Amino acid sequence: MEDDRPGQCYESLAHTLLDLFTQYGGNFIDTADTYSDGIAEQYVGSWLSKEQKRDQMVIATKVCNPVSNDENMCGLSRKHITRNFEKSLQRLQTNYVDLYQ
Predict the structure, then answer these.
(1) pLDDT tens digits for range 2-45
(2) Total domain count for the chain?
(3) 35, 43, 96, 100: which is the annotated catalytic residue?
């Protein structure tokens, strides 16, 4: 499904940009669970899955910022880190990240 919110790009455009990025030698992708409510991680994950380039890329993501109104879904509590790490892995369609900030 394409995202039509102002300031956001379509998944197909994100994939095209990631293709160009890697064609010019890029291999480090930095994202976060809060970028566009997780959509950025989803786009990166679908691209990685489609292109089968996971082993060639360095993937970084982040935790800390609130992702809901739930008091356990912000900050650096063990519960928030663990829950959001698992969700990030699902969105990124991978079983590891190279840097978790």
Answers:
(1) 555 556 789 999 999 999 999 999 999 999 987 888 899 999 99
(2) 1
(3) 35
Beta strand extents in 1-101 (DSSP E only): 28-30, 58-61, 99-100
With respect to residue 35, please indicate whether it lies within any of the assigned structural domains.
Answer: yes
Residues 38-46: contacts with CB under 8 Å, at least 24 apart: 38/67, 38/87, 38/91, 39/3, 39/8, 41/88, 41/91, 41/92, 42/11, 42/91, 43/11, 43/14, 43/15, 44/14, 44/18, 44/92, 45/91, 45/92, 45/93, 45/94, 46/11, 46/15, 46/93
The 10 Å Cβ neighbour count of residue 58 is 12
pTM score: 0.81
What range does the domain containing 39 cover?
A: 11-16+26-100
39 assigned to some structural domain: yes
35 catalytic, yes or no?
A: yes
Q: What are phi and psi of 42, to 5 degrees?
A: -60, -45
